[in-house]
Specification:
Belongs to the LpxK family. Its EC number is 2.7.1.130. The chain has 328 residues and is an alpha/beta fold. The longest helix has 16 residues.
Length: 328
């Protein structure tokens, strides 16, 4: 489902009328958190979550944290509920044998970087990871889930979108009010280029009572140069327009773009239509890493993947929190 435009506009009539339903949603989140057991599993748990619904950059953040912990000699495992997959778990994701239908696309992507577990019951997934040798748990999502105690709660926000109109679903894009969520968090990470970061700070800076780190997503080199390349691009991520903008920044000649719903299945009908269109346009089909893992195996050679990684110019706010929980 595509987010309605009014979620990211100044509060108006529609968001005001939906405000009471947003209050009900927020109350439900509050009750669910109050009933949680907050289990401990014997190793630090780092929750990478958000206050907004939809994509904010949690998965690239989890990957970057895994690499940061590895540099410290800490063996981290990821635990995720496997959104879009049908496995209950706990089960360790095997990227060569599992499919996105089983584990969800984000779990497959994470599994290429660190041992990853899919578990609808996060506490059970964390215990399985610890039994398998995890020295730390990176909980992908789960900020509004109280199954596990969090030693570090890191909230990720898209600097472009910020916290939208500041209202709770369905009146706005939030799972809970900003002040409520940030009061439980240890650190905020905003992701976006410098201009977006400046706008985010101007709008929301006075409402951030916790340490604030900044990062941006940077594309990795591909086997085929994108500069001047005719491209048909598709993306089924939280904000597809960001991917298309990245391609423009790399010099791609965007002949056609297809903004799909987040996690949208890549059916034979859909892919046949896009491949036919690309052939007519003389264009290369290009997509994101997250979408690529949902492609049928036989189509992957026909679609170029453009991977992105989180770059954090100043790790000091994050490292300070890691020093706290790992006492190093």
């Amino acid at each position: 489902m595509r987010a309605p435009l009014f979620w990211h506009q100044a509060p108006g009539v529609v968001s005001t009328l939906l405000g009471p339903l947003g209050a009900v949603y927020a109350a439900g989140t509050r009750r669910r958190l109050a009933r949680g057991s907050r289990a401990r599993v014997g190793v630090p748990v780092i929750c990478v979550g958000n206050i907004n619904a939809g994509g904010t950059g949690k998965t690239p953040t989890a990957m970057a944290l895994a690499m940061r912990l590895s540099a410290r000699g800490i063996k981290a495992h990821a635990v995720t509920r496997g959104y879009g997959g049908n496995l209950e778990g706990p089960v360790q994701v095997r990227e060569l044998s599992h499919t996105a239908d089983e584990t969800g696309d984000e779990a497959l992507l994470l599994a290429a970087f660190l041992p990853t577990w899919v578990a609808k019951d996060r506490a059970a997934g964390a215990r399985a990871a610890v039994e398998a040798g995890a020295e730390a748990i990176i909980l992908d999502d789960g900020f509004q889930n109280a199954a596990l105690a969090h030693d570090l709660s890191l909230v990720v926000v898209d600097a472009h979108k910020g916290f939208g109109n500041g209202r709770v679903i369905p009146a706005g894009p939030l799972r809970e009010p900003v002040a409520t969520g940030l009061a439980r968090a240890d650190l905020l990470l905003s992701i976006g280029p410098e201009g977006a970061q400046d706008r985010f700070a101007a709008e929301w800076g006075d409402n951030i009572p916790i340490p604030h780190a900044k990062g941006h997503l940077a594309a990795l080199p591909t086997g085929l140069p994108l500069n001047g390349l005719p491209v048909l691009a598709f993306a089924g991520i939280g904000h597809p327009e960001k991917f298309f903008q990245t391609l423009k920044g790399l010099g791609a000649d965007l002949r056609s773009v297809h903004a799909l719903d987040d996690h949208q299945p890549l059916t034979d009908t859909l892919m046949t239509r896009m491949l036919r269109e690309a052939k007519q346009l003389g264009a290369q089909v290009v997509t994101t890493e997250k979408d690529a893992v949902r492609l049928p195996t036989e189509l992957r050679p026909k679609v170029m993947t453009v991977p992105v990684r989180l770059e954090v110019p100043d790790w000091a706010p994050i490292d300070a929190q890691l020093n706290r929980i790992f006492q190093t």
